[in-house]
Amino acid sequence: MWPDCLIAMKPLSQFPSFALPSALGSLLHRLPAYPGAMLLASALNLSLARQLPADVCDLLLHKKLRIHVRDARLTFDFSWTGQRFAASPQHEAPDLAISANAHDFMRLAQRQEDPDTLFFSRRLTMEGDTELGLVVKNALDALELPAFEPQQWSPRQLLARLGPRKRMAGVGPRENAGERHD
Fold first, then answer.
1. Contact criterion met (CB below 8 Å) for 72 and 106
2. Cβ(31)–Cβ(74) under 8 Å?
3. Contact at 8 Å (CB) between 69 and 36?
4. Tens digit of pLDDT for each residue in 5-41?
5. Nearest-CA neighbor of 50 among 158, 148, 161, 145?
6. Which partner for 71 in 19, 24, 52, 172 could form a disulfide, CB atoms 3.0-4.6 Å apart?
7. Of 151, 102, 149, whose CA–CA distance to 124 is shortest?
């Protein structure tokens, strides 16, 4: 029932094609959408909001955007406020909706797949204002964004980035956490 990549704990990006099991998608679909949209908007603000060209910002202003992860059955709605991305309650009809499976979004984020290739193979779809979609795609292609590396977000890596001051305050990992003192 479970794909080899989940059993062997290999990154999804190492497999040519992968879809989440439908049972997992059914479970994820029951989660509230707004917290996920807040996380996505925060990630977009951290990674690219400051790098967007002014003309793209003007075009995005107050547009309703949607990311739909088909196999996970998750939908994230957000918009550009003029200074940042902000999560939105689910829109009835977004100005632009971009859909793909989780695996394909991950490959895009890791720069292992080209959006045009996914689009022409119908694994990535855009609905709504296609001119807006092309401007967003071209703007993202022009930015110098680092490839997303999931290992950077492991608990150990996050705690290591907190630095020694936070660890001294009891926030990060302790130096001898694995030793037993009997």
1. no
2. yes
3. no
4. 444 445 544 555 677 677 765 666 666 668 889 999 9
5. 145
6. 19
7. 102
